[in-house]
Amino acid sequence: MKTKSIAAKYLAILFMCGACGSAIATEAEESVTFNSATVSIAKAVEIAEKTGGKTIGAEFDIEKSQPVWEIKILNTGGVVEYKINGKSGEVVKVENEP
Predict the structure, then answer these.
(1) How far apart are CA 83 and CA 87, in angstroms?
(2) What is the pLDDT of residue 26?
(3) Nearest in space to 41 (alpha carbons), one of 49, 30, 32
(4) Could you tell me the pTM of the whole model?
(5) Distance CA 36, CA 12 (A)
(6) 31: phi then psi, degrees, rounded to nearest 5
């Protein structure tokens, strides 16, 4: 019975602080933003590989409420990360990895 009381108090604190609500909103935002992307991961890889090299990593991210594909390419100069807008396919940033 003591465990149920502690668990109930913990849940009450989470709800009062808004921790649960913010986690749900973040997941909802991620889902909406991901679904708004018209550029597939395959197309993002194709765009990044046009510069030469092979893809060694890819992930989806949200930047300024916009869908972004982060594609890591290994070429003769090392690893380069391309950030590609998930709606337009535009390369918005290129960074050399250390």
Answers:
(1) 12
(2) 83
(3) 49
(4) 0.71
(5) 35
(6) -65, -45
Q: What φ, ψ does residue 50 adopt, rounded to 5°?
A: -60, -25
pLDDT tens digits for 76-85? 999 999 999 9
Residues 24-53: what's their mean pLDDT? 90
Write the single-letter amino acid at 40: S
Residue 14: the pLDDT is: 39
What is the DSSP code (8-state) at residue 29? H
Q: How is residue 19 written in tokens? A: 């921790």
The tokens describing 56, both together, are 């060694």
Cα–Cα distances (Å) from 24 to 3, 18, 60, 81, 93, in that order, read: 26, 10, 19, 30, 29
The tokens of 32 are what?
């909406």
